[in-house]
Amino acid sequence: MREPSQLPKSFGSRLSSAFSEYGQLCVGIDPHASLLDAWGLEDSAESLLTFGRRVIDAASGRVGIVKPQVAFFERMGAAGFAVLEILTREARDAGLLVIADAKRGDIGTTMDAYLDAWLGKSAPFYADSLTVSPYLGADVYLGKMGEYFERGKGVISLVATSNPEGESVQLELAKMQFEALGRINQVAAGPGDKLGPVGAVIGATLNLSRFGLDLENQGSVKTPILAPGFGAQGAELSDIKRLFGSVADTVVASVSRSVLESGVTGIANAIDAHKLQLEKGLA
Q: In angstroms, rounded to a whole number, what is the distance separating the alpha carbons of residues 8 and 250?
């Protein structure tokens, strides 16, 4: 076994470093057809590469985290996945943490295969963390996750999402799931980490009291929160403390359309403006 000093930095540690250096904003890479058109691009795999590279160029040095939405690449088949392989590595090389928003969820060897595809040593895609769906059971969090945690990888589980129709499924399960993530993080975090390797997707547009989530009392290691719903979905970055209280400093504040709709000439300024709103909210 390697000594602790020889191990890669944990996902929680690297996320904390990204927060310290660049803040908590995360920029989505979501090349849906209408956005490609608005950017003057054809709806093609080649345009996915152009779009993604422009987002990475604008994000690099401004934020520490990007979140490619896998579905917008998958719809192009093999060509789209080939682009995603390129972009995830270019984002890594630009110094960005990559959250692959794929929402994978299964059991046994099938889940292991999903994790190998995104987090494995020979993964065709590069990701620091992968969004997962927990509704088939704990294999989503467990299974081979120990080896991924040791290599600095993480997963982020759906808990209470920002889409209203999700409430009917999530309302009864969210509290139990969030508590399970917290227990895993207490034992899976790296030495001295303030954030664990297993995060929770919790929408910024939700009335969290309806879900029974106790975000305040988590122990010494906190569960990172990936929060969609800011920007185009209506939540204000400047309200982050009102929305998430004392754990606002654990939130990855995700924005996509409200930045991407600014177009290739405006995206950098849009990122800067969103960062300023978030900084004011955290002050």
A: 21
β-pairing, 25-29 with 129-132?
unpaired
**Cα Dmax for the chain:** 53
The whole-angstrom separation of Cα 96 and Cα 163 is 27
Cβ-Cβ contacts under 8 Å for 35 (sequence gap 6 or more): 51, 257, 260, 261
Catalytic residue, chosen from 67, 103, 121, 241, is 103
| Residue the block writes with tokens 């300023």 | 276
| Identity of residue 113 | A
Residues 25 and 233: beta-carbon distance below 8 Å = no
What pLDDT was estimated at residue 24? 98
Compute the chain's Rg from CA coordinates: 18
103 is catalytic: yes
First-to-last CA distance in the chain?
43
CB-based contacts of 87: which residues, under 8 Å, 6+ apart?
Answer: 29, 48, 49, 52, 53, 56, 68
Check if the beta carbon of residue 247 is closer than 8 Å to that of residue 225: yes
Give DSSP secondary structure letters for 46-74. Answer: HHHHHHHHHHHHHHBTTBSEEEEBTHHHH
pLDDT in tens, 90-119: 999 999 999 999 999 888 888 889 999 999
Element (H, E) at 25: strand 25-29
**What pLDDT digit, counting tens, does each position of 122-164 carry?**
999 999 999 999 888 766 666 667 788 888 999 999 999 887 7
